[in-house]
Amino acid sequence: MINKNLLRVLGPGLLYAGAAVGVSHLVQSTKAGAGYGFDLLWILVLANAIKYPFFEFGPRYATVTGNSLIEGYSKIGKWALVLFALVTVFTMFSIQAAVTIVTAGLAGNIFGIGLNPVYLSAILLVITMLVLMIGRYNILDKLIKLVIVLLTVSTLIAVFSAMGKGYHPDPEFARNFSWNNRLDIFFLITFIGWMPAPLDVTIWQSLWTLEKNNSLSFKPKLREVLIDFKIGYIGTAFLAVCFLTLGAYVMYGSNEELSPLGVVFADQLIRMYTSNIGHWSYYFIAIAALSTMFSTTITCLDAYPRVMKPLTEAFFPSVKKRKFHSDLFSWFWIIVIIIGSVLLLSIFSGTMGVMVDIATTLSFVTASLLAILNYIVVTDKHVPKGGRPGKWLRIYAWVGIVFLCGFTLFYLYWRFM
What is the C-alpha separation between 159 and 106, in angstroms, rounded? Predict the structure, then answer.
């Protein structure tokens, strides 16, 4: 029965993958390989390994308690809820804006749309809003499975094709990562910030896990839910290595720099694929890349209203007592996020590089705070003993917390001293 049930449980882990495999992979991992070859491969692997426990705590907590991590924060104290709310409010507009401008850049390049990137982003967000209002979780659950398969197949074809041509960077233009170079350090911070994804996603996944579990006709076991999570987590780490490899094999030492402008970057990205696979694959690769970024855009726009609804009710109990229809909360917050993201894009003139740097840096700085919160919640006494992480996972988490806090202090010292 476990195999049959496992197939039905699959979903939240793939939604995590859909949210994660976006800017951090298509943009940051590719830039890491293109700029430094394989110098940052160990950083990529380490970042995925260090953050694993904190992402795992989301589906774990939701399954054993029947609540999201947001309810868990409220149980350990109002301070935790306030801290998480501040992190969310200060990052949600920049993150939504960053993933949307990359998606708009791809769409503009593929379909030859010469519209201003800010206007195109606004149109894309409205279309995404309509899709969510019509389909909600069910459409996400179905769409993401197709997207992940399409992306994985196309990426593997590209990687094997690139490796078949060999690794021959031009020594004249090849460079190594330097710990004494401020630009290299800044890129490292932005690279780790979203590798494999912002830690906010673990809260999103706890909400998606609840949604999925409530739609099933049986109560899934914790091990089944964690298998779903591990498939998504390991898969995203593997794809990150693939994109770094593509950047290293195709662009490293070529004296070609990836543009910070969304439309130009999209052209470079698709050309990178097609130059290795063949021009026959242009539309296949273009659809895969666009669907990947659209999945990130739609998962973010679905997740933030899900997060803001319980936060609103927690801070304003009178709103909850009035028993507004839950969809009203979703529509309200979707509109707020769209307006805020478009305004932010307008201020920065639609520059993808600026938006990505802001969002990834904020995610990096707040990662240690969310990691500590997640650990406190999942080990709290209100969590059933059988559902709490075991001894080795707790030790693993503490190692991760020390690493994240230490690296954050290093960044703050480097940035302001």
Answer: 20
pLDDT tens column, 316-354: 776 665 555 556 777 888 999 999 999 988 887 555 566
Model confidence pLDDT, tens digit, residues 6-37 = 666 666 777 787 777 777 787 788 889 988 98
Enumerate long-range contacts of 324-327, CB under 8 Å, 24 or more apart: 327/133
Residue 75 is encoded by which pair of tokens?
């149980």
Asked if the peptide bond before residue 260 counts as cis, ω within 30 degrees of 0, the response is no
Q: Which domain holds residue 252?
A: 2-416
From its phi and psi, is residue 87 left (phi > 0), alpha (psi between -120 and 50) or beta? alpha
Domain with residue 55: its CATH number is: 1.20.1740.10
pLDDT of residue 324: 53
Calculate the alpha carbon distances from 81 to 180, 262, 297, 389 in Å.
38, 35, 25, 22
User: What's the total number of domains in the chain?
Assistant: 1
Average pLDDT over residues 27-51: 91
Q: How far apart are CA 266 and CA 254, in angstroms?
A: 18
129-167 tens-digit pLDDT = 888 877 666 666 667 777 777 778 878 888 888 787 778
> Residue 2 burial (CB < 10 Å; 0-12/13-18/19+)?
exposed
Burial class (CB in 10 A: 0-12, 13-18, 19+), 82: middle
**Distance between CA atoms of residues 111 and 128, nearest Å:** 18
Cα separation, 372 vs 17, whole angstroms: 23
349 φ/ψ sector (left φ>0, alpha ψ -120 to 50, else beta):
left
Q: Three-state SS for 128?
A: helix
**DSSP label at 84?**
H
How far apart (Å, rounded) are the C-alpha atoms in residues 353 and 305?
A: 26
Q: What is the pTM of this model?
A: 0.86
CA distance 244 to 256: 15
What is the rounded CA–CA span in Å between residue 181 and residue 184? 5
- Contact between residue 391 and residue 383 where contact means Cβ atoms under 8 Å apart: no
Place of tokens 């669907």: 291
Helix boundaries (H) for 251-325: 262-277, 282-315, 317-321
Phi-psi region of 276 (alpha: psi -120 to 50; beta: other; left: phi over 0): alpha
